[in-house]
Design brief:
Number of helices: 10
CATH class: Alpha Beta
Radius of gyration: 20 Å
Number of domains: 1
Distance between the termini: 58 Å
Helix content: 25-40%
CATH architecture: Alpha-Beta Complex
Strand content: 15-25%
Bound molecules: uridine 5'-triphosphate
Largest sheet: 9 strands, mixed
Oligomer: single chain
CATH superfamily: Spore Coat Polysaccharide Biosynthesis Protein SpsA, Chain A
CATH topology: Spore Coat Polysaccharide Biosynthesis Protein SpsA, Chain A
Order of helices and strands: EEEHEHHEHHEEHEEEEHHEEHH
């Protein structure tokens, strides 16, 4: 069965990026020329998904506006001889269907995903976190691979992982793999540990913002007890699946498909610099500018 539905949670408060996120969603912050969530949708489309449910919350209207056709802006560009800029709005007319629902209270990623149950019904679906880009300019095919693994019927959930430095394992959900995978390879997940210390971490494989689930995840989420701050953790629900004997498979991202996490300042800055330095139009000048800047400072 072909998977066509994707769920993109964008309801989080983004407190780690204050003050930038005080009155705008972190998912709308620009990375290079585009807002983060536009890359996420591009990646979904490139991998064959055509229906997207965005789980929004208060203060997230600009995301809906971004994907709508804006006739006033189009007329303005035409009337002011700026027709060349219309190509920047091509994404508005892509063959994607957008659906929206709101998470009333920010009770965690797990709770946000529960809001998709009616939309996905009993069909398998993709979850793509709205604050993470996979691959430079979203050129990633890993979701296709994950969906293939899922539809071959050998897993109840498929999750993307990236290798992170030892000092960073305490920020992420970390996999205990049955055997250590090479780049781009799949592996069976024995357990998933949320934010372990360096010494407790069974590997350096961190959950990387992309998932394929069957409707079994909803049952697991409903059974999951709220943790810190009343939040329902997705990792806990995945653990329940594993404990219940379900096969959960990981895919290690290949090195040219890095995850850009727009959830904290350091990795947001890194993502912006990386995308700007590799922009087809401005990249060369940006590289010269950075070289000059670095030379000046040494
Ligand atoms: P984070 O775990 O980074 O949470 O969200 P957050 O609340 O946005 O960030 P901080 O910790 O306050 O800085 C990962 C993804 O899950 C969504 C976010 O919008 C983001 O895309 N999310 C998170 C929800 O949709 N609902 C939630 O209750 C929490």
């Amino acid at each position: 069965m072909q998977i066509t539905n994707a769920v993109v949670p964008v309801a989080g408060m983004g407190t780690r990026l204050l003050p930038a996120t005080k009155s705008q969603p972190k998912e709308m912050l620009p990375v290079g020329k585009r807002p983060v969530v536009q890359y996420v949708v591009d990646e979904l489309r490139r991998n064959g998904l055509r229906q997207v449910l965005l789980i929004t919350g208060s203060g997230k209207h600009s995301i809906e506006n971004h994907f709508d056709v804006d006739p006033v802006l189009i007329r303005f560009l035409r009337e002011t001889n700026k027709e060349a800029l219309l190509k920047e709005l091509d994404f508005e007319r892509q063959d994607m269907r957008y659906f929206y629902t709101r998470q009333k209270m920010q009770l965690g990623l797990g709770d946000a995903i529960l809001h998709a149950a009616e939309f996905t019904g009993n069909k398998p679906f993709v979850v793509a976190l709205g604050d993470s880009i996979i691959g430079r300019h979203a050129q990633s095919r890993t979701l296709s691979k994950m969906m293939e693994i899922f539809t071959s019927g050998t897993a109840e959930a498929v999750i993307a992982f990236e290798e992170v430095p030892e000092e960073e394992v305490h920020h992420y959900g970390i996999a205990e793999p049955e055997t250590m995978p090479k780049d781009g390879e799949k592996f069976v997940i024995r357990d998933l540990i949320e934010k372990p210390s360096k010494d407790e971490a069974p590997s350096r494989l961190a959950v990387a913002a992309r998932y394929v689930f069957s409707q079994r995840i909803y049952e697991a989420l409903r059974e999951t007890k709220p943790g810190k701050g009343g939040e329902i953790q997705l990792t806990d629900a995945i653990r329940l699946l594993i404990r219940g004997g379900e096969r959960v498979v990981g895919v290690k991202l290949p090195p040219d498909e890095a995850r850009y996490d727009i959830g904290n300042h350091e990795s947001y800055f890194q993502a912006f610099i990386d995308f700007a330095l590799h922009d087809p139009e401005y990249g060369e000048r940006m590289r010269a500018f950075c070289r000059e800047l670095l030379n000046e400072n040494h």
